[in-house]
Hints:
Blueprint: H1 3-31, E1 34-38, E2 45-49, E3 56-58, E4 65-67
Antiparallel strand pairs: 1-2, 3-4
Bound molecules: zinc ion.
Amino acid sequence: xxxxxxxxxxxxxxxxxxxxxxxxxxxxxxxxxxxxxxxxxxxxxxxxxxxxxxxxxxxxxxxxxxxxxxxxxxxx
Length: 76
Ligand SMILES: [Zn+2]
C-alpha cells in the first residue's frame, strides 16, 4: 500500500479523534460547573449544576425535596 495514503488516513483519523475530544471537553466543562447551597431542612451543603437551577432534587443527607436556587443565591 502507498504510504502517502496511509499517512493521510491516519491524519484524518487523528483529526477526528482530536475534534471529538475537544468537543466533549468543552461540553463537560460547561456541565461540570458546580454550585453549592444549603439544604433548608438539615443545613447540609449540597452541590448542584448550573443546568439544575429551578429543578427539584433530593437532599443527599435527609432526602428532603429541594429546589436548586439561582446561581446568585448559591454559596461557596
Ligand atoms: Zn437535607
